[in-house]
Amino acid sequence: MKISFTQEKLKAFLDEKAELYNQANFIQTDPIQIPKRFTRKEDIEISSFLISTLAWGNRTAIIKSGERLLEIMNFKPYEYVMGYEEQRHMFVHRTFNSDDLNAFFVSLKRIYKQHGGLEASFQANPEIPGVRGRIASFRQAFTTEPFPDRTQKHIANPLKGSSAKRINMFLRWMVRKDESGVDFGIWNSIPMSELHLPLDVHTGNVARKLGILTRTQNDWRSVAEIQEQLIRFDPEDPCKYDFALFGLGAFENF
Prior knowledge:
This protein has helices spanning 7-21, 41-53, 59-72, 77-82, 98-114, 118-121, 130-142, 165-175, 201-209, 220-233, 241-250, and strands at 92-93, 96-97. α1 packs across α11, α2 runs antiparallel to α8 (165-175) and α9 crosses α11. It is mainly α. The termini are close together. The chain is globular. A two-stranded antiparallel ribbon has the order 1-2.
């Protein structure tokens, strides 16, 4: 059932909910707690990228898989990746398995050696504006052959309609300057205004009830539709409303 708000009241409502959930205690139940254990930029971004890639399904299971990843990397993500030699670890998270993990480690090593790191690999695309183009640039760099075909599905492609939920969440963590201390804000090459909502079941359902989203699919067109509204509410930090929409859905059953 759609709930009717004036634009002014909707903004005030979402601002209030964003402030409520964008707090340090949010970290306690969120996968972002995995990279929060590090202070080195490269350790933060590598662990963030890996755990965000696994971020679908039960959050407790996601965090447990994140713990296993840290063990595999000897709790030194950057050092481990830079010295990585192909091998098979015992690892499974839903459809992400040991072969996928090996491919990710190989590509991460190449990204740091050849592209200057994860941040540099999200370079602006002159043909595709905004974060959609940046994700496309990253995907092209990350999946360069011999990246296995079966692992392609774990790197979203917004050019083929994917909502790119997990990559958008990773970018929120890396880019968004957050006074509450949830997001890291350690990347300066991407403006916060470009960040798009990590669209999932919770945020999508709440957005539809609030009239922010009319489409029924959770795809890139829906992400773009929500972005048009959120950027009106806060042109500098539209992604802060991820906390409001997710909190309403996950914690309040809105």
